[in-house]
Amino acid sequence: MHNVESAASTVIFGWDPTWVAVAILLLVYGVIMSEKFNRAVLSLLGAGLMILCGVLNQQQAVAGIDFNTIGLLTGMMVIVAISQKTGMFQYVAIKAAKLVKGEPWWILVMLSMVTAVFSALLDNVTTVLLIAPVTLLITDALGVRPYPYLFALILASNIGGTATLIGDPPNIMIGSAAHLSFTDFLVNLTPIIPVIFIVVIAVIWFMFGRDLHATDEKKALIMQFDENAAIKDVPLLIKSLFVLFSVIAGFTVSHSLHLEPATIAMFGAAVLLLLQTFGQSVEEKDHAYEGIMAEVEWTTIFFFVGLFIIVTGVEHTGIINILAEKTLALTGGDFAATAATVLWVSAIASALIDNIPFVATMIPLIHSMAPTFGGAEAIEPLWWALALGACLGGNGSLIGASANLIVAGFAQRAGQPIAFLTFMKHAFGLMLLTIGIAHIYLYLRYLS
Amino acid sequence: MLAERIMMTHLVTAHVDESISDVLVRMRQAELRMLPILNSDQTVAGVVSTFSVLSHIVPDYIVSGDLDQVSYAPDMGILKKHYSEQARKHVSTVMERAPLLISKNESLLSVSASLISSGKHEYALVVDPTLHLLGIISTGDILEFLNSIQAGDANDA
Predict the structure, then answer these.
(1) DSSP letters spanning A148-174
(2) Which long-range contacts does B102-107 make (Cβ < 8 Å, 24+ apart)?
(3) Which tens digit of pLDDT belongs to each residue from A63-82?
């Protein structure tokens, strides 16, 4: 988030800018939670009100938009939109199921691993969008209940997404706002993810794994899946993998090249768009570009744009500084207690509300704590606490993350609906367990 | 022209408690794609068609388009599994419960309009006020009848 130069604003009717900004923020967040209106429309309405009411002028509003986050999100969405057409997600999922000879429990483990890895390297929404239907096909062939598999998929997608800068939108926002590189995330967050994943899978075994059985005939059916038939476009697959690996390699060196990850992602997207349509006529190219652009989640992008402006408006009034002071007073200015508070509050909040607006609000709040704890570098563990809390917290309920709702939609269409309370009964405790592990990790690595 | 003039009265039917596989055999033998299903008191309960049976065999998550392709899946294994799950069930589990019902006194124009506006029906069941089956009219029957009239007119001319 950009720090906006303080400039006296003339708020409509001479109202207190703090109250106006907070009222707009609460109104927008409240209506978003009601899920009655599109969240992008609401955030843009809120952003417009911030300007029209005089909390921000237009220049300040535009300066508040974090274009690194917007660029990174858009670039990765384009790359994923092209890559998903190749069938590589389905190929890997089927290959994984066949590697374990159709054993139901190990298929659950393998599909969870595939989901976690793809979620870390791409985005978790696309990953579950492509892996969940294949999972339904596999469980159908096995004759087992899909719920344990879909449950594991949801948890794995959010756990995997926590591992990297690009895995989950909150991480992209945190990385951009705190100037944390892809490598910083790899060094500080990735190491704890396999531990969390293994613990979660072990618990899932006790919950469901022991009851997953299939006849030899059903296992043989899994071995009849033809992963090669899933690949739809080999040349495009090669181009996609080339760009994907180049972009990830670019992320790891972007900091030393003084490049933002957004630049790498957008450049990669442009190269892949060019490669995808190489040799085609102008009409075919235009058609292909329009198709890919239509697959970019513009709703999410505009949601971010509006959100950044709303949070900038609130930040501009100084209320965030007051909230930071109150939080510090609550924790007695103790760094470990502050980190723990950030971690646990983020987790609980992210389980119940959209973690993106929550993180957008927390970012300036954590920035405000920097002087108290000795500067920007000293508060780095607070960013890791926020990332772990916000991403892993998404596992706490069915509405905790977009990926959860997508899997629930598939389950509904498969005639195996996932009830909100059933999921929460199974997932909330597991989420708290993962936050407990994250807490121990943070304590041992940064706080002791 | 009234519906009763062109309706088929030589009917092949099935009962609600017959198995799907038995009904499919009867449809095959009679070279029909649909059969009226009757309750034990001989009133109309619904209609079963090859389409309605197939739509219960193919899982919803495949039909819904969540998978953009399924060519990599062992299709015969999955279809056989779902068919064997359905085959022994009563035909009432897959029948369409709201078929297009008409009275024998409806005009051909009215029946034709009902068939078109209902969208998914190619057949109308002609029933009496107590829902006992009197006959069936298909879109093909209507067209065949019109064609025969035109041919007759041409011959007369």
Answers:
(1) HHHHHHHHHHHHHHHTSTTTSHHHHHH
(2) B102/B3, B102/B126, B102/B127, B102/B137, B103/B3, B103/B127, B103/B128, B103/B129, B104/B2, B104/B3, B104/B4, B104/B7, B104/B128, B104/B134, B104/B135, B105/B2, B105/B3, B105/B4, B106/B2, B106/B3, B107/B1, B107/B2, B107/B3
(3) 999 898 899 989 999 998 89
A&B contacts, CB < 8 Å: 57
Counts for chain B of helices (H) and strands (E), in that order = 7, 6
Q: What's the half-sphere exposure (Cβ side, CA atoms, 13 Å) at A6?
A: 3
In chain B the domains, ranked by start, together with CATH numbers, are 3-156 (3.10.580.10)
Task: Tell me the pTM.
Answer: 0.82
- Residue boundaries of the structural domains of chain A: 12-64+88-230+297-447
Prediction ipTM score: 0.70
Report whether A41 contacts A298 (CB < 8 A). Answer: no
Q: Which residues pair with A364 in a beta bridge?
A: none
Which residues of chain B are within 8 Å of residue A415 when distances are taken between CB atoms? Answer: 59-60
Q: Which residue of A has its CA nearest to B66?
A: A133
Which one of A140, A227, A229 has the shortest CB-CB distance to B59?
A140
